[in-house]
Amino acid sequence: MAHGLLQTNDEDEEAEDLGEFYIQELVSKSFFEGVPEDQVVVDGLIFEELKHLGISYFKMHDLINDLAVSTMQNERAAVKFNSTNVRENVQHLSFSDSREGVPNFGNKRLSKVQTIGFWHASESASAITEPFLRWVFKEFRYLRVLNLQCSNFQFLPDCFNKMKHLRYLNLSYCQRMEKLPDSICKLQNLEVLNLCRCVALKYIPKNLRYLVSLRILWITTQMNDLSCIGFKTFSSLQILILWNCENLTFLPHDLRHLTALKRLSIEACLEVTHFGDEAEQEIDDDYSLKLEQFSINQLPELLALPNWLRRCSKTLRYLGLSQCQSLTAFPEWFPILTSLETLLIADCPKLTLPHNMDNVHNLQNLKIFGCPQLVERCKRDIGPDWCKISHIPNIELESV
Q: Which PANTHER family does this UniProt record tie to the protein (predicted)?
């Protein structure tokens, strides 16, 4: 997507959907192979949780790998800092080490480079320094993809002003980074910004709202209020993931204005008690939301679901609630979620089902785990809540 390779003639088709279609085509032809569910665990998250975060893993057939390497051999290079035999027409650079100073590549000008990352480096070898980053910003003005995952810098140089072609910026697991530079707000073509597991991040500039092309955003931060970001200006945002924002006590009220959003996941925000929309008593019909998947995990203080969720009544297909120990009830309007297909409830011991749940006619999958009282109430034929769920084709109940 970052390289503009996903083109569609259908103005209503999103690039993410087209990309997923291509992946599934490759899987169906055995070029790619899905990784078994029990082999996929990342940061303690199991396959299903990762899936709803938009993360999938595949194995590539050896022949396809060989073909890809052969096809791209003149355009890609895995290099070290002291490499000198780098072709000047290379477009994609992957470093296998890092060190003090900057590479010179035999004084060659690599003006066509569009991708830089450390995919071939071990974690201990990716000690990216500030001089290296300044060199990248100076030398590669046409960069589209920059992956600095797992870097150990504390401050990112404020040098993004001229990186106008950048589409993808991965800063995930930069666990010492405390501040995003203000110049990052100049990246008006940026489509993906990944700040996942940036556990020391204390400052996100308020002008981040100028990233008008943003489609995927992951945030981990020490900030206690994200309202300054101005989420409602992200008119193209498709996926938003708030992960391990440990100081947040409420979620921004303008999440309800993300009219293009399809997937929202809120994970491990332990102090959050509410969504900032309690003042919204009456919902007018001026606009609707396109949210398809909404998951909440490890919000033990959350008291209620957001009122704006009813604006997704015609699009929401998946709702997942996990480890929300203070959540006691679904909202009264829950049955208007007529498109809901899957409902997951896990480790929410106080949560009860709504009285009119049998009106949610499209619900195909109900999964209840780690809720002993609710599981007891939902036992087939004998539980008092069985009549609410008996119309659902696929039901999984486990007390533990």
A: NB-ARC DOMAIN DISEASE RESISTANCE PROTEIN (PTHR36766:SF61), PLANT BROAD-SPECTRUM MILDEW RESISTANCE PROTEIN RPW8 (PTHR36766)
